[in-house]
C-alpha cells in the first residue's frame, strides 16, 4: 500500500500519549476533501481532534493515507474507528472509540498492514482506549461466518504468475480445478498523494461465477488489488493503458484466493473458445 509505510513511521514519532480530551476545542464542518469520513452520519467534527491535529489542512493530509486501508474492506467498522480519531463527532465531550472496537478493527486490518511489511501503529494501541462500553464508541456486532460465506473477502497472498493459456482444453482444466473465473479490465491512475493505484475498470465479466456474486465481484477484485499491491504492480504496465485479464481462483474458508492469471488478448482464441465451451463443459 504505497504511502502507508511513511505514514506509520511518522505516527510512531508523534504518539498522542496523553492528549487532553478536556482541551478547548471548536466545532467545524467535516471537510469535503476528507474522503475518509464522508459517510459517517454527521457533518461537524471537533478540532483539535484525538490525533492532536489542529488545522483542517493537517487533518486532510494525515487522513488521506488511511483511505486505501478503508477501501480494502478489512473490517466493516474500520471507518467508524478511524473517523472517531481523525474527525470526532461534535458533542459536549470527546467520544473515544472503545477498546473492543479498536481490537476488532486491529485484528482484521493489521493483516493488511502485515501484507505490506508494516505493523499496527503504536498510535492506535488499543490499551490506550477506554474499556467501559457505556462511555465510548463500542463495536456493534461481528461479521458472522454465515455473512462471510455469502460475502467472501480477498486475503493477502503470494502473487500468481501470469501464464500463457496454451490449448483451450488446458484453460478448461484450470476452470475445473478452481471455483471461479472472471474477466477484468485493469487500469492505473495517480492519486492526489502522487502514488499509483490500480482499479477495475467497467464491469466484471463472470465466466464461471462459482461462489462470487455478480453484484459484488467488482468490489472483491478491487479489494484484492488494494491488499495485494505488489501483484497489482506486476499486472499493470507502466503506461496508463487498460489491460484485460482472466483471474481464476477459489474461495477457501470464506477467503478469496487468486490462483491463475491469463492475459487476455483479442486474438487469444484458446481463452475465447474455452469461455464459450464452459457452460456445456463437464469436468
Automatic annotation (TrEMBL):
PROSITE patterns noted in UniProt: FZ, NTR
Domain FZ: 22-139
Keyword Iron-sulfur found: no
Alphabetized GO MF terms: Wnt-protein binding
One annotated Gene Ontology cellular component of this protein: extracellular space
SUPFAM superfamilies: Frizzled cysteine-rich domain, TIMP-like
Entry's Gene Ontology BP terms: canonical Wnt signaling pathway; cell differentiation; non-canonical Wnt signaling pathway
Cellular localisation: Secreted
Residue stretches making up the NTR domain: 159-283
PANTHER family: FRIZZLED, SECRETED FRIZZLED-RELATED PROTEIN 2
Family in the record: Belongs to the secreted frizzled-related protein (sFRP) family.
Protein name per UniProt: FZ domain-containing protein
Lineage, top ranks: Eukaryota, Metazoa, Chordata, Craniata, Vertebrata
